[in-house]
Amino acid sequence: MVSFLVTIAILAVVLLGFNILMGYRKGNITLDLNERYTNLTKQAEAVKQELKKQGKTVDYEGNGYYIINGKRYVVKQHNVAMGGVPLQRTVLTPAK
User: Fold this and answer.
1) Which CATH fold would you assign to the domain 27-94?
2) Distant-in-sequence contacts of 44-53, Cβ < 8 A, 24+ apart
3) What residues contact 63, with CB distance under 8 A and at least 6 apart?
4) pLDDT value at position 20?
């Protein structure tokens, strides 16, 4: 019984860590863009287009900083393999 509870606790911690790593945190905006971007300016344009499709107001300030619906965010990129295909996940976190 104790080993079962320990296993459940370990799985919960792993799942929580994975979610944090993938950018799923309260206040974050997570986007999966169709293309991979190495140029910050081109990525900014793609992020702006995607957020505008979602009905948000977006201004790009430069250097990875955005104003989205009146709040300031900074971009963080994660590269993830989904089914063997690399995916660039863009996470916008509230700037401090």
Assistant:
1) Ribosomal Protein S8; Chain: A, domain 1 (3.30.1370)
2) 44/75, 47/75, 47/90, 47/92
3) 40
4) 56
pTM, full prediction: 0.69
Which of 16-30, 35-49, 53-67 has the largest mean confidence?
53-67
User: Is pLDDT of 15 > 80?
Assistant: no
Taking the domains of the chain in order of start, what are their residue ranges? 27-94
CB half-sphere exposure, 41, CA atoms < 13 A: 0
Distance CA(71)–CA(56), nearest Å, equals 11
Cα(20)–Cα(27) distance, rounded to whole angstroms?
A: 12
Distance CA 70, CA 72 (A): 7
Q: Output the furthest CA–CA distance in the chain (Å, rounded).
A: 55
Provide the strand spans (E) within 18-84.
29-32, 58-62, 65-68, 71-82
User: Confidence class of residue 32 from pLDDT cuts 50, 70 and 90?
Assistant: confident
